[in-house]
Amino acid sequence: MAMLHPDDEKFAQQEVLSHTSISALFNERLGLVPTRITSSENQGAFHKVYFVSLEQADGRPWSGRDVVLRIARKTIEKIKTENEMAMLAVLRASGIPVPEVVFFCSDPDNPVGYEYNCLERIPYPSLVETWVNLLPPQLDRVLDQHVDIFIKLFSINVPRNHGSLTLSGNSGPVLEETMWSLPDIHRYFNAEPYNLRDETFATLNPTGFYTTWPDYISAFLKTYHHIVSIHPVVNFLRDILEPLQRLIEVLDTAEAPWVQRLRNSPALRGRLFHRDFHFGNILSDREGTIKGIIDWEFAGIGVSFAKRSSMMRNCVGAHPQLLPLGFTKRTKKRCWELKAKP
What we know:
Elements: H1 6-13, H2 19-30, E1 34-38, E2 47-54, E3 66-72, H3 79-93, E4 101-105, E5 116-120, H4 127-130, H5 136-155, E6 164-165, E7 171-172, H6 182-190, H7 201-204, H8 213-230, H9 241-253, H10 257-264, E8 271-273, E9 282-284, E10 290-293, E11 300-302, H11 311-316, H12 327-340
Antiparallel strand pairs: 1-2, 2-3, 3-5, 4-5, 6-7, 8-11, 9-10
């Protein structure tokens, strides 16, 4: 994929929906009228987020509650929304603290004009705001909660194929933030000066789920081979097409001993991962008790090293001088427990 384009960032900085449209949506979906609609200046790259307070009304679920409405920028249609909603259902059933789904729509052609989802608002700050004020015993507890959550994630009964989840809980197509999205495809393939108008999401990205790690890697290599063979900007790479094709064939035939080892390695079997597990997505109280984990849109089933934003990266990367003595040793001890989880 391309790096995030300035035009992509503009989406969440504009008023994607009017307050009138938002009120009509809530009236239609819940029979409730918002009493307050706000949005933060800090927005992500994939959604416009609105914070909505709902009116009190007897007998109506979600009456008087605060919720979060997320309007999806058009990037990866249907798969991303349905994967996140399926993940949240599985996670809540397993005891992971995640927001409850109020309603959603994964049809990009719905009357709103965008895919959307509405989630429970968890009324706690993120660890980004609170962790620097935690005492050493509280930091230890944050670490313990992190490891316990990862161990629980590894234990959730999901299909072990490399990919996403469907709403029915089955294996869905692979989903990665690095895939070519719809704006990228138009900008760098379909439009002038490239005029590669036959290229689509399906021709430029893997579109299935994969039973083994080599199958997953091969699927991505095939898309890279295709792009190098057609795109004038990367024609300087065409000398690698022949060896790349040979590698793909080796992975697909699975006759080489090293490929067989990769296919059968327990360390490379699929596990459920958040993939963006940083302090900004972890909500806690002022004592460091984790109350919610948000932003599961690119969660999926993958190998253990697919996880990102580790405990140490969060802490050491920001303020290493604030870590209590012995914290690094404790982190290593607990992470060995994580590594030993089958």
